[in-house]
Amino acid sequence: MFDRMLPPVFTNTKPKRFEGGNGMRYWKQLMMAIVLFFAGSASAAHAGTANSPIHWGFQKAKDEVPAEAGKPLDDLLERYGSYYKGDTSKKDIYLTFDNGYENGYTEKVLDVLKKEQVPAAFFVTGHYLNSAPDLVKRMVKEGHIVGNHSWHHPDMTRISDEKLAKELEMVRAKTEELTGVKEMAYLRPPRGVFSERTLDLAKKQGYTHVFWSLAFVDWHRDAQKGWEYSYNNIMKQIHPGCILLLHTVSKDNADALEKAIQDLKKRGYTFKSLDQLEMNKAFEHDMLY
């Protein structure tokens, strides 16, 4: 299988006779070809690894012991300035929502956030921007962050660099058209699928990848289980520094949100924005370097 990745170096080439200077030149050419062969092999192997799809996952938090993705993923995300949790020594929560389409519950979510004075980030798609422009405007008006969830919700590891850049720019441009906000700083990859290549490309476009450390199956709009399902999942998995992911298509989430926020505050948690997390990360980086 590996040999299919390699460039054919000696195809249709007959070796020359070893005759004095010409023979020495042939052997030099042969050695150079071998060097290039293995250099090409290494390059091809690296390219394949760099864009190998990674499906985001982690060991769930329990008893307020933070979620863990493992050192390899921790190192990869740190290398590209990405994160899935904040400072785990502080009882901070970063509330985020993925908005692929509107199902009638985002208005209630925004009402709760306004009442409880909790900041949030909403990661939107092109479909959401086109179908729920007034809600996007309200998000920004009430001080929330609108993040990029791509225009068409593709597997970003399977599209070209140019197409990926276009996916992100279309969301940014439409958000600016609706809200006047020109810059977009945060990206959540569709389905949680990414690669080192997509981390690098997004960073060059000015984006910080934001993953999550608490989530559960909440996106099936026809399989809702009641507000206790959402509430219990949140309370069982919560931990200091948590980045909480919820989907606004869920009635369970909308119904559970107010009680969850109030009870988490009673347990000593503070809700903060991704901008505050970003500033903290930048401060830590400056202190280290």
Structural overview:
- With 289 residues, the chain is of the alpha/beta class.
- It has two domains: 2-50; 59-288, Alpha-Beta Barrel (TIM Barrel), CATH 3.20.20.
- It has helices spanning 20-50, 71-79, 106-116, 126-131, 133-141, 161-179, 196-204, 227-237, 251-266, 274-288; strands spanning 54-55, 92-99, 121-124, 145-148, 186-187, 193-194, 208-209, 242-247, 270-272.
- The strands form three sheets. Strands 2, 3, 4, 8 and 9 form a five-stranded parallel sheet that branches.
- Helix 3 links the parallel strand 2 and strand 3.
- Helix 3 runs parallel beside helix 9 (251-266) and helix 8 packs across helix 9.
- Residues 1-49 have low confidence and may be disordered.
Query: Which sequence of SSEs, written as H and E, runs from N to C?
Result: HEHEHEHHEHEEHEHEHEH
CATH homologous superfamily caption of the largest domain = Glycoside hydrolase/deacetylase
Rg value: 24 Å
Architecture (CATH level 2) name of the largest domain: Alpha-Beta Barrel
Helix content: 40-55%
Major sheet attributes: 5 strands, parallel
The backbone outline, from C-alpha atoms, is globular
Number of strands: 9
Query: Into how many domains do the coordinates divide?
Result: 2
Say what the CATH topology of the largest domain is. Answer: TIM Barrel
The quaternary state of the protein chains shown equals: single chain
